[in-house]
Every structure is written in C-alpha cells, then in structure tokens.
Here is the input.
Amino acid sequence: MNKVFEEVKIGKITFKNSIIRSATHEGMCTEKGEPNEDLIKKFEQLAKGGAGAIITGFVGIMPNGNAPSKYMPMIDSDEKIDSFKKLVDRVHSYDTPIIMQIAHCGRQTRSKITGYPTVAPSPIKDKLYNEDRPHELTEDEIYEIIDNFVLGIERAKKAGFDGVELHAAHGYLLSSFLSPHMNKRKDKWGGSTENRFRIVKEILLRARERVEDYTIIAKINAYEKAKDGMNIEEAIKISKYLEEAKCDAIDVSCGIEEDGFWTLRGNFPFEMMAHDNHRIKKIPKSFRKIAKPFVKMQFESPKPYKLFNVPSAEKIKKEVNIPIIVVGGIRRLDEIKEIIENNKSDIVAMSKPFIIEPNIVNKFKEGKQEVSRCIDCNYCIIGIEERPLKCYYGKLPK
Ligand SMILES: Cc1cc2nc3c(=O)[nH]c(=O)nc-3n(C[C@H](O)[C@H](O)[C@H](O)COP(=O)(O)O)c2cc1C
Here is the structure.
C-alpha cells in the first residue's frame, strides 16, 4: 500500500490516510446555528468517500464573531452540544475522525448580520467589507474572547469531536492578532511576535487545563499580500511558539480576505460576483463591464494557482517537531505522493476538490482517477454568501 493511504497520527487522532478535507464553510444549519440534516448528509458523504479526516467549516464561538452568512454553525452555548453530537456520531459510524474548526470572524464579517460592531486588535478598516473601522478590543474583551474559545473547545470535546482546529488564518480574529498588518497594538497583545501570539498562547494554555491532551491544531497563514503582513520568517517563529504551547499540529495556509483570491486561487469569478455578491450587485448592469478590470486588479489571484503553500509548509516542517498539514491548490495524486513521500508535509488538505467529488480519496485509492475534476471556477466561494455549499462547475445559478 502506498504511504499516502496509510494511517497517520496527529495528537490523539488516527487519520485514516494523509488526504483530509480542509475546513469549508457549508452554510448548512438552522438560524440558531445548529447543524441541519443536509450538513449531516454532507459529512456522511465525505466520510463514506474515504477522507482521512474531516475538518468542519468554521464554527462560531460567540455571537459578535459570527460569519457574514446567516447559516454559520455556532458552538456558543451548552444547549448546542447535542445537535453536534448527532453529526459526530454519523461520521464516526464510518470510523472517520472529525475535527471542529472554531473561529471568531473579527473584522471580516457584517455587523448587519451579527447585530454587533466588528472587532479587531486595532481599529484598521477592512478593505473588502464595507464596515466602519472595527472596535479596538479592550483587555477585558480579549479575555472574554479567550474564555469563549476555551468553552468552544470544551463543548466540541463534549460533543464527541476528535479534536479542534483554531482558525488563526485568513484574516479572522486570531489571524488578525498574529499579523503585523492588522495588529498595531502597543500593549502586551501587540508589537513583538511573542505579544501578537499571546492570545493564541492563552487559549492553548487555558484549554490544556480543562481538556488536557485533547487534540488541538492551529491553521495559520505563512504569508499575506501586504508588505507589513505575515511572512514566512514570522510564521516560523509562530510555529515554534505553537509547538511550545502544546499545539498538536499546524495547518499551513495564506492570505486574508482583502487580499482577494490568495487563499483560494484560480479563475477570477466576476460573473458570479455580479450575480451574487452584495457589492457588485449594487453596480448598475451597464457599468459592470467597465468595473470588471478595476475589481479584477484588486482581487485577482496571484500565480501559482497550484501547490502554493507547499514551499512554506516545507520550511515550517524543518523547524518544528509537530505534524504539518498543507492546503492550497493540491489536485493531483502524483503531487500528493511527492509531498508526503519527500516529507514536505505530513498531511495534505483539500477544500474545493471535495465539493465536486466528496469521494475523491476513494477514487484515488482505487486507481480510478489521478486528478481532481475541480476547475477552480471559484463560483462555490461566491455562492456560499447566498445558499448552501455546492459545486457550480462554472455555471451561473438560475
Ligand atoms: C466555499 C469555501 C469555504 C471555505 N470555508 C473555510 C472555512 O470555513 N475555514 C477555513 O479555514 N477555510 C475555508 N476555506 C478555505 C479552504 O479551507 C482552503 O484553505 C482553500 O480553499 C485552498 O484549498 P483548495 O485549493 O484545496 O480549495 C473555504 C474555501 C471554500 C472554497
């Protein structure tokens, strides 16, 4: 059997193989933020389809950190635990581990949806969301957020999840503390790398007191577009701090929302944006053609479109002794084998390939297919603002 399809241990979890489903917001839950039957079925398909493990789309830990989607799951109260248990049990019936990704959206959300002002380490306006400057968090508010992350971890454990992933990437709240571009604080929560890392460290230390050796991983950015944003040297320092703070694995990604199509790459989906996106929809139809090059200039994907976090993951892996997960533009089995067998990363994660083919790992394993059918049209990410996750395969919804 190929090494890619052998079991791998991350913390206390045994992954069925090295190809896992990356966190992907599904937009499938009730307005209260509890998983609905569609979400359970989605995870069941992924589990049946051979994924080594499943990381859920981001789950909110407190109401002011909700996503700009009406259908973000929330683990913000004990009453929600049972609704998640049902989902976990279904996935476990296929012996597939499931990890809950927990998040606070910080400044990357819409106050109209959350009902609260956006918050951030520093009052720096986000260039994508048309919101006022975010509220600069006070120290008491930072501790309240830390407490809520810890509660989220405890609740995920009670619901039976095999572990949690702290979403500290893509510009959301924890990532905005880590990034010098978004964190200009002068107190103990900003400035040096150690200070910017403090919020994540406090979450990990406090969580360890409550859940002991429960598996906790962190998704971080290795680089961002802004000159003063995250870079690989900073990401290596943060990875070493994560290891010291007893984080079980590091998931390597890149980009924040205002960077445009950095985190996920490929086609610039202007037509889908004009169809679905709140801001583009406001531009009169006759002006849209004229607007396209300007919007494209700001938000287009940089090259390469494929394997764009592998070099960073490889560098981080050389500096720490905890497992590394890499995500971003991974589409071919031969490339996955090359990454795993040459020790560039311990695990690979994919998002879009699992949207079009939830059973892609079985297809790879059974030799039925070598490459994902995903065409990176990126309609899925735009479509998620309006309706549950699906693959549009480059076709506009009717
Ligand atoms: C529709 C959609 C929703 C996503 N939601 C999340 C999320 O909730 N949390 C997260 O960390 N990343 C999220 N991502 C990013 C992916 O996890 C991944 O980092 C990115 O898509 C690059 O991987 P890929 O090239 O395999 O798609 C999402 C991506 C897509 C397409």
Summary: The mean pLDDT is 96. The chain is about 35% helix and 10% strand. The pocket of flavin mononucleotide is lined by residues 22-25, 57-58, 101, 167, 169-170, 219, 253, 263-264, 327-330, 350-353, 380-381, 384, 389 (CB under 6 Å). Residues 354 and 360 are 7 Å apart (CA to CA).
